[in-house]
Amino acid sequence: MSRLLIKNGRLIEPSSGIDENRDVLIEDGRVAAIAPAIEAGDAEVLDAAGCIVAPGFIDIHVHLREPGIEHAETIETGARAAAAGGFTSVCCMPNTIPVNDSPTVTSFIVERARRSAIVNVFPIGAITKGSEGEQLAEIGAMKEAGIVAISDDGRPVMNSRVMRRALEYAASFGLTVIDHCEDLNLSMGGDIHEGIHSVRLGLRGIPGCSEDVMVARDIILSEATGAPIHIAHISTRNSIEMVRHARRLGIRVTSEVTPHHFALVDTDIHGYDSNFKMKPPLRAHIDKDAALEGIIDGVIDAIATDHAPHTGNMKMQEFERCPFGVTGLETAIGLTLEELVHPGKIDLKRMVELFTSGPARVIGLDRGKLSVGGPGDVTVLNTSRKWVFDVNQTQSKSKNSPFHGHSFRGGPLATIVAGKVVWQAPAGAPA
Amino acid sequence: MSSKSNAGKSLLGIEVLDRSEIEWILERGRRHKRKPGEAVKKLDTLRGKSIVNLFFEPSTRTKASFELAAKRLGADTISISGEGSSLSKGESLVDTLNTLAAMLPDTIVMRHSASGAPQFLSRYLSTPIINAGDGQHEHPTQALLDALTILDRRKSLENLRVAIIGDISHSRVARSNVHLLSKFGAEIVLCGPATMLPPALKQLAPGITLTHNIVEAVTDADVIMMLRVQLERQNVLNFPKNEYFQFYGLQLMHLERARPDAIVMHPGPINRGRELSSEVADSPRSVILNQVENGVAIRMAVLERVCGDA
User: Fold this and answer.
1) What is the residue-averaged pLDDT of chain B?
2) Do B94 and A321 count as a contact with CB atoms less than 8 A apart?
3) Is CB count within 10 Å lower at the N or C end of chain A?
4) What is the pLDDT of residues A157-190, one digit of tens each?
5) From the list A195, A201, A271, which residue is nearest B115 (CB)?
6) Are B267 and B291 contacting, i.e. CB atoms less than 8 angstroms apart?
7) Are B146 and B291 in contact (CB under 8 A)?
8) B116 vs chain A: nearest CA distance in angstroms?
9) Which residues of chain A have pLDDT under 50?
10) How far is CA B105 from each of CA B78, B100, B125, rounded to the nearest angstrom?
11) pTM recorded for the entire structure
């Protein structure tokens, strides 16, 4: 019987509201006890004195690139990057080659994850066949094979009739539809956020309204069908305001934000560095401020990284030719502490919520909490460890991060999946 | 990747230059102007220097102008254009440039259809780069030769009213001119339909106003700069082609609204009957050919600055 005792930590457990010193004992992958000062004889002990002990963090928006784009990332390397970022569970988007639009591909991902991933990997299925936006994918069969939500992330469903049917059909299976909101006609050809910076750099703009019109459509369709909709990587003030309004009306809309959207703005793009190129693009200050406000007041349910690995040669091109996307798993906690917790915008409990019970609730995943009998997934972090993110040391196969060389205060210290310590901060790192 | 020892001498754009650097180039360019009837003086300022002209986008006048400028200074030049180069064989831009840089040219003159291509390369290359036009971003030597052309007829750029008319949003010529004119205190009026005149342009530099009305733009103007209507970069939705001239083409009647000594400029190639009427193009107000002439002088000055030992 494997036993792990996490001692002396400050347990922050949002679903039960606990914020006190507690020991956590995990036996055979499940939580066996949560109590002050547990004595457990021969159990392996992890001393978490001075640290925060939280339910395992969940990232509901990552790209693991397998099958088909293994030179950029694999399920194995993506899972290692997740562990190094303090995540015990990730949900991977279906835009692989082939697209995860069938139970066969879903089963392949589940099986690869079982054999090679050190964290839990939950696949997200496509909404439509090939994510082409026309015919519904085998949503029910994919659910039986293991998907936890559906999305045509990156190739959003433009046809509102298809989207309506997808919402209705997915709801019959208890699945949430996650939408990457982008009107592809309005955003066509764009490279960065449309505004003074795109004008200055001579780059084509992706207007905020290309996101807003789709968020509006989705809210209206959710209201019409009664089905839940989740807005991925929300990035504009108007979109956040619409979600806020919709929720007041009782419409079942949720949203997530990425760390780069609350940490950076378009004017941070220097030297045509494509490690700052992603979709949605880095927006204006008013949008970033709205994201912070949404996190504080609860309109935003989750922080998700949209970890999108691309190989160096894909990103070493003329800006307009480079693909969209940045990696993000390993910097998410550090950025959240820096932008939200250290400045006092949110407390640690809210931060833990945004990485655990928040995302779990969005897709109805039975994770994100620590309770006796439940999964022994734990994230241990602190708010003081000084470290520098060196992209050359990343666990990901790709290095396209805008935060190379960035100094952080606080971050993950240990990642525990089913009672097993799968990652620990490098020993000897200055405390 | 190599060090960036010489890359600091690059000329990537006007926005990053300060007034004194611009004045140095203009003064130097003025000295390189030929007097009427004067024979070409071949100088040896850049003897022994090699310059690569790398044109990934078609160009006639800018390429010829850079080649002539280099030759007049005694430099060795080779010119490579996009078609037939290794780029069309799938080599990446960085690899192409690294290969050329390994042959140790003193300067690379580069035109590219992607905004920021020379800025991106300058982060990885030690060879200084002269930007001969990058996408919709900047065309610094055009703005310098335009300034020289204006200063042939005016004492200073300060308080001049300069109207720039046409597809501002897609124009690298407009951006570079705006930055230069603004640094010298000119009053800049940008004019075009809203599809080509994003409101954010007002924040590009101090001294800018925007208008959709060409009559308003040219009224009391000292300088009228027309931009080429760039169909190749044009989204078909930006304007109905057939009525463009009617509302934004420069005609003789507009010149009556401008200052009596106003000049008309155009970076070329001109489309008669599209952005300006033939009568305007051929009128004494037009300084379009002077611009071309000044182009060689300015590029000589720029090559000396970037590639010379000074």
Assistant:
1) 91
2) no
3) N
4) 999 999 999 999 999 999 999 999 999 999 999 9
5) A201
6) yes
7) yes
8) 6
9) 430-431
10) 10, 7, 12
11) 0.95
Of B15, B114, B198, which has the smallest distance from its Cβ to A319's Cβ?
Answer: B114
Q: Where are chain B's structural domains? A: 7-137+292-307, 153-286
Contact A199 B169 (CB under 8 A): yes
A306 catalytic? Reply is yes
From chain A residues 165-224, the ones with a CB under 8 A of any chain B CB are 189, 194-196, 198-205
CB pair distance less than 8 Å for A320 and B115: yes
Give the percent of chain B with pLDDT over 70: 93
Q: List, edge to edge, every strand of the sheet that includes A302-303.
A: A150-151, A177-179, A229-231, A253-257, A302-303
DSSP letter assigned to residue B161: E
What ipTM did this prediction achieve?
Answer: 0.93
Q: Residue B1 — very low, low, confident or very high, per pLDDT cuts 50/70/90?
A: very low
Per-residue pLDDT at B217 exceeds 90: yes
**Residue A61, number of CB atoms within 10 A of its CB:** 28
> CB–CB of A202 and B136 under 8 A?
yes
Confidence of residue B97 (pLDDT cuts 50, 70, 90): confident
Name the 3-class secondary structure at A199: helix
Task: With CA atoms as reference, report the closest residue to A311 among A275, A359, A339.
Answer: A275
**Joined tokens for residue A236:** 């504009």
Bond from prior residue into B269 cis (ω within 30 degrees of 0)? yes
Chain A CB contacts of B120 under 8 Å are 271-273, 318-319
Domain(s) labelled CATH 3.20.20.140 in chain A stretch across 56-363
CATH superfamily ID and name for A3-53+375-424: Urease, subunit C, domain 1 (2.30.40.10)
Helix, strand, or coil (residue A367): coil
CATH fold label, B7-137+292-307 = Rossmann fold (3.40.50)
Taking the C-alpha atoms of residue B180 and residue B205, their distance in angstroms, rounded to an integer, is 9
Domain B153-286 has CATH 3.40.50.620: no
Q: Which of A306, A347, A366, A390 is catalytic?
A: A306
**Contact (CB<8Å) B92/A203:** no
The whole-number pLDDT of residue A431 equals: 42
Chain A interface, mutation test: which of B1, B4, B115, most A Cβ atoms within 10 Å?
B115
- Whether the CB-CB separation of A194 and A137 falls below 8 Å is answered with no
Residue A228, preceding peptide bond in cis (omega within 30° of 0): no
DSSP A125: B
Q: pLDDT tens for residues B34-86?
A: 877 777 777 899 999 999 999 998 888 999 999 999 999 999 999 888 765 66
CB neighbourhood size of B252 (10 A): 12
Q: Retrieve residue A110's tokens.
A: 């589940």
Q: How far B201 CA lies from chain A's nearest CA (Å)?
A: 7
A 355-394 → B contacts, CB under 8 A = none
> CA of A391 to nearest chain B CA: how many angstroms apart?
17
Distance CA A382, CA A50 (A): 7
Distance between CA atoms of residues B159 and A292, nearest Å: 44
- Which residue bears the tokens 């001119």? B177
- DSSP class of residue A126? -
Q: Is A176 left (phi over 0), alpha (psi -120 to 50) or beta?
A: beta
- Residues of B with Cβ-Cβ distance to A318 under 8 angstroms: 93, 112, 114, 116-117, 120
Chain B within 8 Å of A271 (Cβ-Cβ)? yes
User: Is the domain defined by A56-363 classed in CATH 3.40.50.300?
Assistant: no
How far is the C-alpha of A198 from the C-alpha of B136, rounded, in Å?
Answer: 10
Residues B12-32 have a mean pLDDT of 97
Structure tokens at A388: 């520098």
A39 CA to centre of own chain: 36
| Per-residue pLDDT at B60 | 87
SS3 B151: helix
Evaluate whether B146 touches B181 at the Cβ level (below 8 Å). Answer: no
